[in-house]
Amino acid sequence: LRVPGLAWGGAGGDPRPERGSAPCSWGRGFAGTREAAGALQGGARRVGRMLVVEVANGRSLVWGAEAVQALRERLGVGGRTVGALPRGPRQNSRLGLPLLLMPEEARLLAEIGAVTLVSAPRPDPRQHSLALASFRSQQEQGFQEQSALAAEARETRRQELLEKIAEGQASKKQKLEQDAGTNESQEAGGNPPAGENEASASQTSGEPEEAGSSSPQPGPSNGVTPLPRSALLVQLATARPRPIKARPLDWRVQSKDWPHAGRPAHELRYSIYRDLWERGFFLSAAGKFGGDFLVYPGDPLRFHAHYIAQCWAPGDPIPLQDLVSAGRLGTSVRKTLLLCSPQPDGKVVYTSLQWASL
């Protein structure tokens, strides 16, 4: 194993991004994060809303698109989208709201005052029938409204067609009268045979009858075909209203919605997460890479992860086999393994390891 960075057991090492990359704009120490959180709260007050994170069964969710954008751009907290897209519900390559936050992210945002953690009330199974009846009532109301609009549109179209039919009949009648006047003038100028006059008269008188019989007759106004239920437009909800009975959640107290409080593993991960975040790094989950966090020098949409962070308590032994496998895995995916260990004085010791194939 080659150690290009800090030595194991060094005091408060500082992992640095590679040359040519820049840390995030929020990496200005804790004072800078306070300013960013204050600006975020000020913007929330101006629009009359506070950024809210709903917590249920240990999962922290953000439902607002504006809140997700503000957390990512101003505070460097990205989370992970876990919701299905309305136009692509049968795929998981691209996901949408809500945004799932790691417990460390939710606690950090609550500590700096950027968000409010709330515990949403759980649905009561006894209220399921009432919710179903309300849904069916809303669906029936929507169908009645759509039926009325469809009938109105069809009646408007019917009146337009009746006007066109009346104009066509008047034009045809006028043309027949002109033809009849021409025939009378010809009879006054010359004397055609009587048979021809009778034939022309019978032909002239027969044309209006045929025209009248072939012209479509407007139906009754109440004969409009009703809208079938198969043509009902189903309305899909694109937003989730905030629960009225949501109560604030204290992350310092362990509960069913927040089981992380007081757990040694959570405290270990959080101390390292916060230290790296205050240094200006962007962090995400690293379960696929055998670590606790993926460490980015900036927004993951712009940068690749440079480190795979593993959290170890100061007194925990590290098996050599795990150390070698983690180092080889990190090198194979072009990342550096970062061993993180918090100290009693609050500082965090970092050791970066890379596999050197000899």
TrEMBL record:
Gene3D superfamilies: 3.40.1350.10. Residues 53-119 form the TSEN34 N-terminal domain. The active site is at Y296, H304, K335. Transmembrane segments: none annotated. InterPro entries: tRNA_endonuc-like_dom_sf, tRNA_intron_Endo_cat-like_sf, tRNA_intron_Endonuc_cat-like, tRNA_splic, TSEN34, TSEN34_N. It is found in: Nucleus, Nucleolus. It is an enzyme of class 4 (lyase). GO terms for biological process: mRNA processing; tRNA-type intron splice site recognition and cleavage. CDD domains: tRNA-intron_lyase_C. Keywords: Endonuclease, Hydrolase, Lyase, mRNA processing, Nuclease, Nucleus, tRNA processing. Its EC number is 4.6.1.16. One of its GO terms (molecular function) is nucleic acid binding. Residues 267-350 form the tRNA intron endonuclease catalytic domain. Residues 1-24, 167-227 are annotated as: Disordered. Its main location: nucleus. The keyword Amino-acid biosynthesis does not apply. One of its GO terms (cellular component) is nucleolus. It comes from the Eukaryota. It catalyses: pretRNA = a 3'-half-tRNA molecule with a 5'-OH end + a 5'-half-tRNA molecule with a 2',3'-cyclic phosphate end + an intron with a 2',3'-cyclic phosphate and a 5'-hydroxyl terminus. Residues 211-223 have a biased composition (Low complexity). It holds the Pfam family tRNA_int_endo. tRNA splicing endonuclease is a heterotetramer composed of TSEN2, TSEN15, TSEN34/LENG5 and TSEN54. tRNA splicing endonuclease complex also contains proteins of the pre-mRNA 3'-end processing machinery such as CLP1, CPSF1, CPSF4 and CSTF2. Belongs to the tRNA-intron endonuclease family. This is tRNA-splicing endonuclease subunit SEN34. It comes from Galemys pyrenaicus (Iberian desman). The lineage of its organism: Eukaryota, Metazoa, Chordata, Craniata, Vertebrata.
